[in-house]
Amino acid sequence: MNTALKIRPAAVAGMFYPDSPSELADDVGALIRAAAPAQSGPAPKALIVPHAGYVYSGPVAASAYAALAAARHTIRRVVLLGPAHRVALSGLALPLAGAFATPLGTVSLDVALAQTLLDLPQVTQSDAPHALEHSLEVQLPFLQSALDDFSLLPLAVGDATMQEVAEVLDRVWGGPETLIVVSSDLSHYHAYAEAQRLDRNTAEQILALSPLSDFDRACGAIPVNGLISCAKRRGLVPRLLDLRNSGDTAGDKSRVVGYGAFAFGAASGDE
Question: Which domains can be identified in the chain, with CATH numbers?
């Protein structure tokens, strides 16, 4: 089947984010405008962004996408990795579809780039891990709002090693036209103060480019670790953009989920 003819429809519109195109565009635009101004300097090469419903993690996610303003016309490809929540998966899975849809329109997949990964034993092609997966989908309206035209390479990540993820990222790393986005929430369902402590510790590890060993601290720890491996070898410097939890954004502090936004880029003064 010609993948260019297959479109993966939005699965969580109306649940994680509005299904009305106008409401969605207004909400995402407002979130990005309200985000703290990004620090000056080169646009990030990679981001770690949370993936909950927008009422919960939207303000934190927006801080990452606000950092792309200077690269809006430069980035033409987004490599998007997120944990597979609904389907047991060994390795990383590319979809068979040729485009992903949201209420804001369709995003074409970079089928040619995907083909360059298929000789790797940890990479498979399957629509099943993507069909209902929210960790990738919720990033798309933000990307559609923050960037001009771009193609997408979405990878659902299951049971894989840091080295296997890093090998995939190295294949598709590209130049300034390519943005890497890793979708991950942080701690899940702790009391507010405990979540703050755990998430501060996780943020410190990421900022030190230290791989996460406790996968309960971040649901996307496997792709996060792959990015950390690549960032360390390539001399990228991470910075924390925002660190909050659902108790800060949605109000209930009894059992919260943590959210962090991180940008990885060249050290200050580097090209």
Answer: 44-254 (3.40.830.10)
In terms of Cα–Cα distance, which of 44, 195, 199, 28 is closest to 102?
A: 28
Token pair for residue 137? 């989908």
- 141-198, pLDDT tens digit by residue? 999 999 999 999 999 999 999 999 999 999 999 999 999 999 999 999 999 999 999 9
**Alpha helices of the chain — where are they, by DSSP H?**
21-34, 54-66, 111-115, 128-131, 134-137, 140-146, 162-172, 192-207, 221-234, 246-249
For residue 254, give both structure tokens: 């009894």
Q: Span 18-37, mean pLDDT?
A: 94
Pair 71, 168: CB distance under 8 Å: no
- Residues 210, 211, 217, 223, CA torsion sign: positive
Give the C-alpha separation, 77 to 71, whole Å. Answer: 12
Token readout for 20 is 């009305």
What are the pLDDT digits (tens) for 128-142? 999 999 999 999 999
Query: Cα–Cα distance between 70 and 56 in angstroms, integer?
Result: 26
